[in-house]
Structures are given as structure tokens and as C-alpha cells.
Amino acid sequence: MTYLSELFASRELFYNLTMRDVKGKYRRTVLGQLWSLINPLATMLVYTLVFSFIFRARPSEGDPSGLDIYPLWLMTGLLPWMFFTRVVNGGMSSVIGNGGLIKKVYFPRMHLPFSVAGSVGYTWAIEMGVLTVALTVFGGMPLIWVPVALVFMVMLALFALGLAMLLAIGNVYFRDLQHFTTIALQMWMYLTPIIYPIHLVEDQAERHGQWILDVYKLNPMERFVSVFRELLYDNRWPDLSDSLVCVAWTVVMFTLGFLVFKRSEKRLAELL
Amino acid sequence: MSEAAVVVDDVSKKFRLYKEKNDSLKTALMRGRRSVHEDFWALRDVSFEVPEGSTFGLVGRNGSGKSTLLKCLAKILYPNSGSITSKGKVASLLEVGSGFHPELSGRENVYLNGSILGMSRKDVARKFDEIVEFSGVRKFIDQPVKNYSSGMYVRLGFSVAINVDPDVLVVDEILAVGDAAFQAKCKEKFAEFRRAGKTVILVTHSMGNIRDMCDHAAWLDNGTLRQVGDAQSVMSAYTADIGKGDR
């Protein structure tokens, strides 16, 4: 408990480290914070061109919102995914990247991965805001679902943080881990129904055996993505079992990451 | 002797010297076990007390464990056995300006660095003028610190750190920061500290500094404590030992 209270007492450090990243990132660029929107927009264009126009991925119509716009459907899944990968990658390298600081000053080290989630989350919140506006403009009703979506955003942040903390410690022992993670995340993205609708997987499962879908659904990000889609694109309550699985993964992953990080934290200065 | 501000009780610190360190998965898998290492005791059963309100010097040759002990005092390293208990807030000045973000302005960095060192935003705001005044970089405070000269950089870092206002200040060999005028200011600041009844623990190789500033001292040799007591007698024993030349 004392650990948590120390962490809470130094929350200003979390804020300052977060703002260091937020402010430092786009310094001396003409477009500044706008870059954080241009990036997802460019990705959206490319994926829409390739997967909607060329490969003809056809997600089912939003129910009950009636939306049928691939780029918007894509972004409701892609933005959470991009947040997830940025937190995992950034949080993982935050410990090694701040090695100089860790060796010279005492402060609760957990603020390093936390502040990565903070600064990436700041960008993500803006992106999600813009997406919500776009969904509304094109005829959806996402606004009333925003409070529920916020709860799931916090959950996804904690889930990603848990994994990031776990990997950050692992990375101190084995530097290979960060290169491995980059590859793993890339594969993970294609194993999650972000750019293609899940019914394509369901079709294959019907043809080749139900186990395909069962294995596919073990992926926690599949649940998160579908929850965000149901909330913002379809505008309805997310599936109860999906929500519960999200909660369970969040609790398990965050607790695990927290405990592992806390246990190794004191030794970081000598390991780096 | 007044009450102890810091009690170092039977502290030992061991490092592993790796012959072949496995920090890639490949080597770990190929070798099967974790790694081959040998223990090195940087500190062995060191015990002493630092009286409250004293300025306490740590002396010893290079590699005698001074910095390791200092890092243990600063809670950066944790001893393998023994304990360190301190009364009140401990701040450490091991390196100045670590944690500065080069693209941010001096002003933003003062706030950032202050909070890394454990100050609240309010504290920094209250002391901001004092910090800037002390550093002497007022004219450039809204410039990104990457444009600072290295002297300005450390001076600003030092000014933040010295204004943390702890009960115990742990200082490593950084009195060599800045020009003579700035050093004089630093010494004055330490004197002020002492007058306020705060405790300072410092490592330095400068005999002059120890004589001028310290009232107590401890002498470390190869990780063990050789002598502790008032600065005069420890220093004369230490200088006599150095006079004997390398063994």
C-alpha cells in the first residue's frame, strides 16, 4: 500500500513526464500537433485503398446506426490498435531509454511507462474525438456512447500498460525482446479483425472447423476492437461476454505487469 | 553528539561481475543457464551515523565504494544486507541536469526537473525566481536548453537541485561545476544549508573542500570503513595513508 501511495503522491511527476513527451514531440515542426492527426489519416487512406477498393473487404452495416463507410469502420478498430502498439513499444523502451535518469535520481520508476501511456493516450483521445465527430457527421449517434467508450479506453490503456511493464523488465535482461516485439505486434495486428471484418474468419471456420474461430477469439485485442466497434460504429451495448473478457484481461495483465515491475524496480539501476 | 540524521547499519553491497553476460536471448538459450559471474563486494559491513546538522565528508581512493554508498543513500541502489534509515526528506545531487529535455525551454525544464527531484509544482513556482537567479541564465530561460552552453546547462540543473530543500542532501563530486564565481555561490549555499540545521553528505577528492566544509568524515577503503569521526582526525589519517604511496 505504501508503494501505491508513493506513486500517487508523485502524480505531478507523471503529469510532467507526460507533458515532456507531448510538448517535446512536435517541437520545431510547422504543423505541430496536427501531425498526430495526419498520421492516422494517411494510414486510413492506404488501408481503404488496398482493402476496401482492391480487396473488397465488406464489413456488415452498422446495426442500428446504419453506417456503411469502410474508412470510419476501419478507424474505430485501428485507432485503439495503434494506441495499443504505441503504448507497448514506447512503454517497453521507456526504461532503457531513460537509463541515465534511473541511474542518477531516485523516483518511482513506474512513472516512466505510465507517462508513455499518458502522452500516447493524449493523442489517442484527440483522434477518438475527431473520429466521433466524423461518425456523427455521417449519420451515426456515437455521442451517447462516449462515456462507456471512455471506460473501455481506460481499460485498454491499463491492459497495454500491464503488457508494456512486463516487456520493459524483460527488455532490461534481454535486449532482443524489443525487436521480437515489433514483429510480434505486426503479426498480431493481422490476426485481429481490424482491417477485415470478422465474418470472413467465421466463414472459414464454418468451412474448416469451429476451432479456428475459438482460437482466433482467444486474442484479447479482438474483444477490445469489437467492443469499440459496437459502441461507436454500431451504437449499441457491447456484447456482455466480450466486455467481461476485456475486464478479465485488463485485471490480469495490469496486475501481473505491476507486480513484476514493482519487484524488479529496485534493481533497475544496476541492471541497466 | 546530537541525534543521527542518517544511520547506516551494517550495509553490504555486492555487484556481479559478468564474465559472459547473457543479455540476448540467443546467448541465454545457447548457454542454457543465466550467465557466468563472480561476486564483487563494493561495500562490506559499513556502519556509521551521520549527526543531524553536520556536513559529512566521504573520502577514499578511487573504487573504494564511496559512490556506491552514496547511491545507496540516495535510494538508487539497494544494499544486499543491512539498512539505511534517514530522518526526513533525502535529495541527491549525483548528476545535474539529467532529465532535461533538449527541445524544451529552460523554464519548462526547471519544472520537469524539479518534479523528478520530488518537488511539487507549487514549490517550484514559489522558488522559480530564486532558481533562475542562482543559475544566472535568466536571459535565456525561455530558450530551448539544447542551445545552452554546457556551463549554463549544469548551472541550471544545479540550481534546481540545490533548491529542493531536503533535510538531508547527498552530493557527489559536483562542486566542480561552473566558474569560480559560481562555485563560490555554491559554497555559500551549502553554508546556508548548514546554518539552517540541514545535513549534507558529500563525496569529494578535494582536500580543501573537506577542510573548509566538513565537520565529520568517514574514510572508506576497498569497501570497508577504515575510520569515522571528526573531519580533522579522519583527514590526517587519510592523508598520512596516501603519503605512504600505493601498496
Task: Looking at this protein, list some descriptive labels.
heterodimer, A: 272 residues, mainly alpha, 13 helices, 0% strand, B: 247 residues, alpha/beta, Rossmann fold, 6-stranded mixed beta sheet, 3-stranded antiparallel beta sheet, 36% helix, globular
Write the layout of secondary structure elements.
The complex is a heterodimer of chains A (272) and B (247).
Chain A: H1 2-9, H2 11-25, H3 35-54, H4 70-97, H5 99-104, H6 111-137, H7 146-173, H8 176-190, H9 199-208, H10 211-216, H11 220-234, H12 240-265, H13 268-271
Helix pairs in contact in A: 2-6, 3-4, 4-6, 4-7, 4-8, 4-11, 6-7, 7-11, 7-12, 11-12
Chain B: E1 4-20, H1 25-31, E2 36-51, E3 55-59, H2 66-73, E4 81-86, E5 90-93, H3 106-116, H4 121-135, H5 150-162, E6 168-172, H6 180-195, E7 199-203, H7 207-213, E8 216-221, E9 224-230, H8 231-243
Parallel strand pairs in B: 3-7, 3-8, 5-6, 6-7
Antiparallel strand pairs in B: 1-2, 1-4, 8-9
Helix pairs in contact in B: 3-4, 3-5, 4-5
Keywords (chain A): Cell inner membrane, Cell membrane, Membrane, Transmembrane, Transmembrane helix, Transport
Family (chain A): Belongs to the ABC-2 integral membrane protein family.
Domain ABC transmembrane type-2 (chain A): 31-264
